[in-house]
Amino acid sequence: MRTVMYYFFETNGYVFEILLSIFLFTWWIERKKGFIWRLILTAAILVAVSEITSDLPCMSAVNDTLRTITIFALCVCGLKFCLKASTWQALFYGTAGCAAQHFSYKAATTVLAPVWYFAPPKADLSIFLGFAYPMLFIFFILLCHLFFGKRLKGEDISHLKSSPLILFLLIGMQLATNIFHNMFSYFDTGAAPYTVFNLFDILCCLFLLALQCEIAKSENEQRNNEIMKQILYQQKQQMKLSKENIELINIKCHDIKNQIAMLGSRVPKDEIRELESAVNIYDTEFKTGNEALDVLLMEKFMLCENKNIRLDCMIQGESLSFMKQSDIYSLFGNAVDNAIEALSQLSDADRRCISVKGREDRGMFVVHIENFYEGSLSFDNGLPKTTKKDKRYHGFGMKSIRMITEKYHGYFKVKAENGLFILNILIQLPSK
Prior knowledge:
The protein is an alpha+beta fold. It has eleven helices and seven strands. The chain folds into two domains: 2-226, no CATH class; 288-428, 2-Layer Sandwich (Heat Shock Protein 90), CATH 3.30.565.10. The chain has helices spanning 2-26, 35-53, 60-82, 87-118, 126-153, 164-184, 191-263, 269-282, 291-306, 325-343, 396-407, and strands at 310-315, 353-361, 364-372, 379-380, 383-384, 411-417, 420-428. The strands form two sheets. Strands 1-2-3-7-6 form a five-stranded mixed beta sheet. Strands 4-5 form a two-stranded antiparallel ribbon.
């Protein structure tokens, strides 16, 4: 029985190592219905293929190479079968998992190499190695997850279909490393060359994992920049539309006021006052000295009135004449929108208010916006993390504020304390 179990794990250990490695790089991906059964079926197929390919009547190095390629392909298919992942995601994470497995295997065997080479000829090391190797492998695979897996988790790579050549390059590098290992392993070169080769193999795997992290980061930043451009363009068009709508509303309000005045004594005075009060809400004008800011504040004022939120503004808008109108609209619009969203969840009417202040101060334009909030906030890279389930398409408001601020050589900072969210922006004024 012991011999059968030993043979089973000796033959198929590579499969279970691969499965563990890929799991640590994909556990956060949404799973398909019936995930457990899909996983069991995938593992069974991999074990069956491993058993079949372990005794093929051909050269050992060629056999191992074909086995490696086949298992890699099945792992990619297994990822597609078990997880809600695109083909490109499956290839990317499959490559990362295989690189992590190969690194951990090589690192563990390098640590144990002196035991193999310098132990007495008749020493039985099976019990020691049977315990030491799995522990070392798990240690190194967890290191891979810590230094690379967590970095990949934070990057959205669903868009990698735009870079197939890069992805195929990564796959080629991984397979080449494994093939080189298979060819070299059948030469008895001694302890020193074996150790040097292992170290080279380890460095290749680390380079591959680091490269994947950088590619994912670069691709994600490029995608975010494209989304930001689209958002800013849409906000620019929104500003034009809001300006036209507000002008139309003002005209209509003026006409309605004239009609109310013509009613005279035919309508009770309290009803007249109620009508005038309702019209005045939409006839409010902001005169900050900046047209884009006036349009934005009028738009947000009406939105706040609808949501029972008080909007207090005191801004020296004429000082922002050096900025593009669309940038002003986006900067303040995103800030106020975030505040409105936070306040919409508050039940306390006394706390449903937004304070927006902007003034010149020693060559800088200082913006201070604050509002109350409920719940807890956490920050990542200076920005508050979104609390929404779909995080891919949220959080761009704050990113837009930071991008516009940096465009004008400014400084951006947010903080949350005692239920109060504070946004501070410093923008350098051009020298006069």
